[in-house]
Automatic annotation (TrEMBL):
This is RNase H type-1 domain-containing protein. It holds the Pfam family RVT_3. It comes from Hibiscus sabdariffa (roselle). CDD domains: RNase_H_like (cd06222). Residues 5-78 form the RNase H type-1 domain.
């Protein structure tokens, strides 16, 4: 299934007015669902919200990132602040993960 984090992230990006967004997804099943709305039914309300967000006047690109290769997300998830269920937005990269961001941008 599709995590709520995708919806939360896209809503935050929309509210901040970002015209181009890359949604990095580590689940092939989630990618399939997000790219093919013909399989939707009324029970997938989070999917309807995600599809609505994707159809708005902006560019949302979906990228599949295999979980074992996405070290940046893994590092952020392990930060001491990860115990909180609140959304944490970093306007600038943290020093502790900057080298991972630089590595992933290059590759």
């Amino acid at each position: 299934m599709v995590p709520d984090a995708y919806l939360t992230g896209l809503l935050e990006a929309w509210c901040r007015g970002y015209p181009h967004v890359v949604l990095e997804v580590d689940s092939l099943e989630a990618m399939r669902l997000l790219r093919n709305d013909s399989t939707m039914d009324e029970r997938c309300s989070i999917m309807w919200y995600l599809l609505d967000l994707q159809r708005r006047n902006w560019v949302v690109r979906l990228n599949h990132i295999p979980l074992n290769l996405y070290k940046l997300a893994d590092s952020l998830a392990k930060l001491p602040t990860s115990d909180s269920l609140d959304l944490i937005v970093f306007d600038t990269p943290l020093i502790s993960v900057r080298h991972l961001l630089d590595t992933e941008v290059v590759s």
